Amino acid sequence: MATDRGSDSERNRFSGRAARYARVGTGMSGVAAKMIGARFFGRELQRDEHAGELAAALGNLKGPLMKVAQLLSTIPDALPPEYAAELATLQSDAPPMGWAFVKRRMAAELGAGWQQKFASFEHQPAAAASLGQVHRAVGHDGRQLACKLQYPDMDSAVEADLKQLSWIFSIHRRMSPALDTSQIAQEIGERLREELDYTREARHARLYRSVLSQEPGIVVPEVHSDLSTRRLLTLTWLDGRRLLDFRDHPLEDRNRLAETMFRAWWRPFARVGVIHGDPHLGNYTVHEQDGRPGGINLLDYGCIRIFPPGFIQGVLDLYQGLADDDRDRIVSAYERWGFKGLSNDLIDVLNIWARFIYGPLLDDRVRTIADGTKPGDYGRREAFSVHQALKEKGPVTVPREFVFMDRAAIGLGAVFLHLDAKLNFYELFQSAIDGVDEAGIAGRQKAALAEAGLPEPEWHRAA
């Protein structure tokens, strides 16, 4: 990778954090005061109204906290359901950087003569997101390129926003202690900090390019290391149309896309223990052949979660336990994941969510992912049931691995609902896990991470 010039000057600056606190502090202080006051005086908090105020306080703040807010809206019981519904409506796009600013940012990453490294570089961004924006460019070899440039002071913004997140979680724990969210906060913090490092994202892309190289219909872009730094990631540009453009296509086309999405998510998870933790519709496009969908392009690799092989074995054990109604195997899977001190009542609560997630994979027939459910409502009814039961039977601490596992499962299910796909998810899952076991996952994972240049996880070092 090219040298990351000037990177230290932006590493979690106090001035950047202070400005961030000032922008959000007033609104959040008022929200917190209402929550604490209602509890102190024993009043019932009007959650619908209060959730709207929370959304308004966050709505003026673009960037990482918006990304976190939308993530939290998909995690069962991480926040009250009224809050989750409001946060799900927020938009995470930040206003784009102007050309003069882009030139300075690019010079800081690639040096003063950076424009000579490209045959052309478009002034206007092709896309804007929570942490950076993407510009189209052309290399001197004629290849089309996508250059993702990080917004300034994102290190400082992330640290400030994570502190705000910790504050929100601590207040929620006082108001509704059914779920201990401490590990959720730690998990979100680690993953968000990883997303700031585009060098790591480049390695994630290489990992997926290797793991999915034999999967038909799935295209992973190539990394251009000579044009990439910690805050600039240059990939091959992949032409494609939005996934939602195909909602009115024949069922055969929609099923092909859904089946390809299923393989793109489950194969890396089952084979090497990694998932794409943010299956947002904007992270995929569809490449075409003769006007028909040929497959999908995977565009973003910031939010990748690597799991211990034992966790994957727990996923398989829980699946089989639910299929056979084997309670001992179900409990063993939960304990393998890190749940402690589970009572029979808490096991029953966890099974509500497990049967929802695994339901389509256990049902050997052609079906939609959730009959009659709107994409935005997917999982909400079950999450509410879990919330109500935990208030009576809890508290319980959810292991951190579940944050992005559940996020990915809900996001993927919503994609299937948007496409109104009808598939035999049981057969697809059986194909994904055929011949998979913990020892095989461990060996393949270690080799794949080493090939991609990713650091060896602690569980491999311990072995």
List keywords for this structure.
463 residues; 53% helix; 17 helices; five-stranded antiparallel beta sheet; globular; alpha+beta; 13 strands
Overview of the structural elements:
It is built from 17 helices and 13 strands. Mean pLDDT is 81; it is low at 14-18, 20-29 and 35-47. It is an alpha+beta fold and 463 residues long. The chain has helices spanning 14-40, 47-59, 64-72, 81-87, 99-110, 154-175, 182-195, 198-211, 251-272, 309-324, 327-337, 344-362, 380-393, 402-419, 425-433, 438-452, 458-462; strands spanning 120-121, 127-128, 132-138, 144-150, 179-180, 218-219, 232-236, 241-242, 274-276, 284-289, 292-298, 304-306, 396-397. The protein is 53% helix and 11% strand. Strand 10 and strand 11 (292-298) form a beta hairpin. Helix 2 (47-59) packs parallel to helix 4 (81-87), helix 6 (154-175) runs antiparallel to helix 7 and helix 10 crosses helix 12.
Question: Which helices and strands occur, and which strands form pairs?
Answer:
Elements: H1 14-40, H2 47-59, H3 64-72, H4 81-87, H5 99-110, E1 120-121, E2 127-128, E3 132-138, E4 144-150, H6 154-175, E5 179-180, H7 182-195, H8 198-211, E6 218-219, E7 232-236, E8 241-242, H9 251-272, E9 274-276, E10 284-289, E11 292-298, E12 304-306, H10 309-324, H11 327-337, H12 344-362, H13 380-393, E13 396-397, H14 402-419, H15 425-433, H16 438-452, H17 458-462
Parallel strand pairs: 5-13, 6-11
Antiparallel strand pairs: 1-3, 2-3, 3-4, 4-7, 8-10, 9-12, 10-11
